[in-house]
């Protein structure tokens, strides 16, 4: 791969004269060079002004249905495996992100499926009982009229290498008609730009209200221009990054942070008969392997209840076996030193505990996966990532909410295998300690269309409503030409 | 083998001018057998890895204990309360203190003195020393306090002094001593924790003062900044040291040691950073893949494992958290190995711990 891939998407008037910063990504024995747009302060200000103006003048007047149609067409292109951009995505993303080709291919399809028209309409219906409020004033339940408007200029600051993840917030912004400027994540700087191109192709006017660019964080200059221009900033990253960002924003700017999260899974004894345990372990292994536990929804600990036909230690062995089997279809890329060290530190910590007999390590350090079995209840803690996980034996799944509660601020997804009544009872307790998403095991890394990321309303959080009170409406009647 | 026998054997090794590969290996295997027999947690650790004195034939196969284990486990061949001295880490990173038990300081002292004489004194008998670190009375569990006390007693002139007391750094006394040294023309050495030099340099800068210490003077720092002062990049640090004290960077020596060792590594000055570090013939280093513990190909970066025969009572092979690369004549130290943050949006250990510690 010798050509330099031009990342991002800029409205036509900016595409020529901007600087580029070329970054090389290597994995699987290949190299991909990506040129990120790098605008000067003045260009950044001009870009923000342009997007804001275009959004006010055109996007505001578009029916939501037209935006949905454009997003639907863009998704259709990327779902079409013969489309040149889809082919490019399948070729470049494994090298840029380090995920294996199958993971990238399956992941892209599963994400993009959630951005087709029916799913987009569901996304809207999830947050707005009457999505018409985005197009104009609608009768309010309490009386009067109400309409909702997205920010004139919404800034996205994306992070992380999970392919296509930025599309969630990008789509949310467009659905509420926000003029959009997105900052590419250095670790996955491609999909958002491609998607924006496809939207611009599907609807050039909408394309003018949308820019995908990049800037060096923490360096002042262009960053300050973007941050001061935005009405609302949706940001992803670690808490340090988010805190630094928040500190730079004017107090009147809405800030919607999505920090790092930790996921975990729970398996009840009813799911641990000899017929179900093996397949369930395979599903759990999939949740670990897909995106190598880099996504916020991935499990880093698995609580297994005692008393089933399959004991926790046997389940741990099933899991280890499933991970070993997946390693050939979804090979783990070569880890860098910091990643190896993270796993090594996690393993050696458990190795010390194993000396007291309350932990056992499965597999060899050189295996591309690591499973540790803890025989006593342990509070939730992160694994070494990249296919490492602790299986914790518990007497009753009801103990788990207390074991995860100390980390409330970091909780998000819990994968649960249990009978319906317990699922709801456990979910209630988990909700009380901060868990915001309960999924089936095997679906942890694939949130459904319209999900509430981190328990928030993705669209409602973005909009401001304007109400015409019933009284104003009634008073207006008095001034009508037909008034008695 | 008894403790007395192992001590005698090690003192003999330290007393010799060098060691061949075969000689080092032979002693390493004996020390491993001793530690395997008398240090129960280490024995379980080694057994878990399938490494016992019966299966291990090369020193490189002796299992290295992660440095964190010194916090969690009591790694001692003698009963812990029979130790003459316990050195503890300062505990600036993570929780708890790593402990090294010394039933006798005879081997530690012989190792330290021999290394210091060869690499710092280099044939000189004594030099006037200023110590920028609390003394042993103030920090009885600090291996560095003991180390510097040995240096001052054995290699310092009678007018050598410690400039860190109960009230902290005695800047006035230090500056007076430096002025005196400058005027006298007699070489002087300043030795201390890396971070201790920072406030001295700041004070000199604030006063617009600089010293030109007489030729033959040297500066000795160790341990890094540890959050005790602001962090300064190595090149900037040695430039500033050289500027403030009028000592060339070749004479700014850095010692790399740790509480979990009984032997220290040195460089031959910091004209270029990072310099090549090396130790005496009773300590050897490997660079490994942290996950598998296997040696990385020569010239590749990995994590340092040190094998210190002199650390006989505890564990001789330790897996550090320092990145390094083997080069001719020793290794280069490339900073701490940090576990990575996740590449995506999941919480990794470092962020989690930081939050847990508030």
TrEMBL record, chain A:
Q: Which Pfam families match?
A: LuxC
Molecular function in Gene Ontology:
acyl-CoA dehydrogenase activity; long-chain-fatty-acyl-CoA reductase activity
- UniProt keyword annotations, A-Z: NADP, Oxidoreductase
Q: Does the keyword Repressor apply?
A: no
InterPro entries in the cross-refs: Ald_DH/histidinol_DH (IPR016161), CoA_reduct_LuxC (IPR008670)
Q: What is its EC number?
A: 1.2.1.50
Q: A single GO BP annotation from the record?
A: bioluminescence
Can you tell which superkingdom this protein's organism belongs to? Bacteria
Catalysis performed (reactions): a long-chain fatty aldehyde + NADP(+) + CoA = a long-chain fatty acyl-CoA + NADPH + H(+)
What is its EC class? oxidoreductase
Write out the transmembrane intervals.
none
Instruction: Name the family the entry cites.
Output: Belongs to the LuxC family.
What is the protein name stated in its UniProt record? Acyl-CoA reductase
Source organism per entry reads: Methylobacterium terricola
From TrEMBL, chain B:
- A GO biological-process term: bioluminescence
Could you confirm whether the keyword Ligase appears in this record? yes
Q: In the UniProt record, does the keyword Ligase occur?
A: yes
Boundaries of every Acyl-protein synthetase LuxE domain copy: 24-351
Q: Which UniProt keywords apply?
A: Ligase
Q: Mind listing the GO molecular function terms for this protein?
A: long-chain fatty acid--protein ligase activity
Q: What Pfam families is this protein classified in?
A: LuxE (PF04443)
Query: Looking at the record's lineage, which domain of life comes first?
Result: Bacteria
Taking the record's annotation, the residue ranges forming a coiled coil are: none
What is this protein's name? Answer: Long-chain fatty acid--CoA ligase
Q: Which organism is it from?
A: Methylobacterium terricola
């Amino acid at each position: 791969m010798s050509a330099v891939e031009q990342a991002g998407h800029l409205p036509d008037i900016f595409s020529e004269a901007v600087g580029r910063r070329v970054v090389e990504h290597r994995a699987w024995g290949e190299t991909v060079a990506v040129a990120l747009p790098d605008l000067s302060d003045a260009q950044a200000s001009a870009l923000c002004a342009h997007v804001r103006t275009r959004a006010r003048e055109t996007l505001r007047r578009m029916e939501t249905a037209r935006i949905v149609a454009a997003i639907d067409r863009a998704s259709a292109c990327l779902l079409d495996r013969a489309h040149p951009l889809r082919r490019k995505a399948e070729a470049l993303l494994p090298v840029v992100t380090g995920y294996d080709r199958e993971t990238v291919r399956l992941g892209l399809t599963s994400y993009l499926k959630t951005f087709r028209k029916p799913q987009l309409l569901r996304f809207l219906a999830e947050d707005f009982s009457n999505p018409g409020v985005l197009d104009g004033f609608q009768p309010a339940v309490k009386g009067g009229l109400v309409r909702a408007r997205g920010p004139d200029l919404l800034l996205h600051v994306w992070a992380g290498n999970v392919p296509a993840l930025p599309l969630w917030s990008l789509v949310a912004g467009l659905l509420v008609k926000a003029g959009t400027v997105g900052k590419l994540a250095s670790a996955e700087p491609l999909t958002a730009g491609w998607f924006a191109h496809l939207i611009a192709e599907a609807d050039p006017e909408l394309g003018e209200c949308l820019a995908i660019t990049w800037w060096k964080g923490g360096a002042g200059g262009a960053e300050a221009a973007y941050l001061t221009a935005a009405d609302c900033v949706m940001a992803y990253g670690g808490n340090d990054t988010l805190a630094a960002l928040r500190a730079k924003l004017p107090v009147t700017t809405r800030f919607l942070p999505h920090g790092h999260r930790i996921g975990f899974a729970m398996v009840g004894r009813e799911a641990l008969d000899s017929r179900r345990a093996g397949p369930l372990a395979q599903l759990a292994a999939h949740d670990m392997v897909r995106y190598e536990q880099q996504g916020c929804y991935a499990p880093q600990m698995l609580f297994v209840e005692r008393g089933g036909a399959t004991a926790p230690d046997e389940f741990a062995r099933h899991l280890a076996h499933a991970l070993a089997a997946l390693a050939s279809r979804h090979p783990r890329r070569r880890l860098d030193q910091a990643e190896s060290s993270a796993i090594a530190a996690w393993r050696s910590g458990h190795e010390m505990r194993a000396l007291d007999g309350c932990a056992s390590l499965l597999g060899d350090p050189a295996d591309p996966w690591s499973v540790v079995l803890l025989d006593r209840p342990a509070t939730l803690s992160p694994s070494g990532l990249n296919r490492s996980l602790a299986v914790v034996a518990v007497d009753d799944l009801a103990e788990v909410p207390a074991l995860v509660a100390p980390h409330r601020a970091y909780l998000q997804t819990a994968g649960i295998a249990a009978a319906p009544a317990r699922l709801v009872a456990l979910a209630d307790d988990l909700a009380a300690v901060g868990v915001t998403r309960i999924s089936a095991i095997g679906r942890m890394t694939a949130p459904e269309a319209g999900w509430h990321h981190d328990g928030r309303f993705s669209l409602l959080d973005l909009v401001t409503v304007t109400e015409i009170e019933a009284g104003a409406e009634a008073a207006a009647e008095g001034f009508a030409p037909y008034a008695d | 083998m008894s403790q007395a026998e192992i001590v005698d054997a090690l003192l003999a090794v330290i007393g010799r001018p060098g060691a061949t590969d075969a000689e080092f290996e032979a002693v390493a295997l004996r020390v491993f057998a001793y530690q395997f027999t008398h240090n129960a947690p280490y024995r379980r650790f080694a057994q878990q890895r399938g490494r016992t004195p019966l299966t291990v034939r090369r020193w490189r196969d002796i299992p290295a204990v992660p440095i964190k284990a010194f916090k969690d486990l009591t790694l001692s061949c003698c009963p812990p309360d029979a130790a003459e001295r316990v050195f503890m880490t300062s505990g600036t990173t993570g929780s708890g203190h790593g402990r090294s038990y010394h039933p006798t300081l005879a081997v530690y002292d012989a190792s330290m003195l021999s290394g210091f004489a060869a690499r710092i004194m280099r044939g000189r008998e004594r030099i006037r020393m200023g110590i920028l670190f609390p003394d042993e009375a103030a920090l009885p569990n600090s291996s560095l306090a003991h180390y510097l006390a040995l240096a001052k007693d054995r290699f310092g002139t009678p007018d050598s002094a410690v400039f860190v007391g109960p009230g902290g750094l005695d800047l006035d006394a230090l500056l007076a001593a430096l002025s005196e040294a400058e005027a006298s023309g007699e070489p002087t050495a300043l030795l201390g924790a890396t971070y201790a030099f920072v406030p001295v340099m700041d004070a000199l800068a604030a006063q617009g003062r600089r010293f030109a210490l007489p030729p033959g003077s040297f500066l000795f720092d160790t341990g890094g900044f540890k959050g005790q002062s602001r962090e300064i990049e190595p090149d900037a640090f040695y430039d500033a040291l050289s500027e403030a004290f009028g000592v060339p960077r070749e004479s700014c020596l850095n010692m790399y040691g740790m509480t979990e060792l009984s032997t220290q590594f040195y460089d031959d000055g910091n004209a270029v950073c990072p310099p090549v570090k090396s130790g005496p013939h009773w300590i050897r280093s490997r660079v490994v893949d942290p996950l598998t513990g296997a040696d990385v190909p020569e010239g590749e970066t990995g994590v340092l494992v040190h094998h210190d025969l002199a650390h006989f009572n505890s564990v001789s092979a330790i897996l550090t958290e320092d990145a390094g690369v083997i080069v001719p004549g020793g290794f280069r130290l490339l900073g701490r190995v940090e576990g990575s943050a996740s590449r995506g949006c999941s919480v990794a250990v470092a962020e989690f711990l930081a939050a847990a510690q508030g």
